[in-house]
Write a structure and sequence with these properties.
The chain has 220 residues and is α/β, with parallel strands linked by helices. It contains eight helices and eight strands. It has one domain: Spore Coat Polysaccharide Biosynthesis Protein SpsA, Chain A, CATH 3.90.550.
């Protein structure tokens, strides 16, 4: 089995998410993101797959949850690199598949906010609460959590101050995986532009243009 670059690009389905995070869709940005991710997969001898319809098993849930389709994809792959479709891989991005463990970027650079999220989710105060927009999943994560993800999803999907799929994945990693590889912000932190992946967020998504991105990338 090999490696996969995985994205989700589903038109808004008007299903509300729990918590405060809002789903913002830009066809221009998403299309370019998918194109870049497919190029990256080809460059690094990986397959590419973009989910364009909600997974039947969780079709009643909002789009951000659909990345949990990773559990279906792991039937055929050893590592899966998930990238949100509002994130763009730059020309400088190294081969993520050279890393052999679950990897993700911290969700917030503010320590107090991170501790607060850990409290909400009953996690250890030192847990590195991660963003679910850029994740390298390994086979160990799949094997350790495949029997529990649906239970944790039910536990967290309707909690008002949770962060939909992000809550579920952090709880799963904390409970059943343990310490993971923390990627530096250049791998797609939403709070700054990254040299490897630039992750747009909220209003930034609607303001994105290819010309602006090209100017940014030309300076890397």
């Amino acid at each position: 089995m090999g490696n996969l670059v995985f994205q989700v690009n589903i038109l808004p389905n008007n299903i509300k998410t729990s918590g405060r995070k809002k789903f913002v869709y830009s066809n221009e940005l998403y299309t370019f993101s998918n194109h870049r991710a497919k190029e990256y997969a080809n460059k690094n001898n990986a397959d590419y797959f973009c989910l364009q319809e909600s997974w039947e098993k969780i079709k009643e849930l909002a789009i951000p949850y659909q990345k949990l389709y990773v559990y279906k994809l792991f039937e055929n792959y050893d590592k899966i690199f998930y990238i949100d479709s509002d994130a763009i891989i730059t020309k400088n991005c190294p081969n993520i598949f050279e890393i052999n463990t679950f990897s993700a970027v911290r969700d917030n650079k503010n320590i107090n906010k991170q501790k607060r999220k850990n409290e909400i989710h009953n996690l250890n105060e030192n847990w590195n609460y991660f963003c679910s927009g850029i994740i390298l999943f390994d086979k160990k994560f799949y094997e350790n959590t495949k029997e529990y993800w649906q239970e944790e999803l039910l536990n967290w999907k309707d909690v008002s101050n949770a962060q939909h799929d992000q809550s579920t994945l952090n709880v799963l990693a904390f409970k059943y995986y343990g310490k993971y590889n923390v990627l530096n912000p250049d791998w797609g932190a939403w709070y700054r532009k990254g040299k490897y992946i630039t992750h747009y967020n909220g209003p930034q998504t609607l303001e994105w243009t290819k010309d602006k991105f090209d100017k940014f990338e030309s300076k890397l």
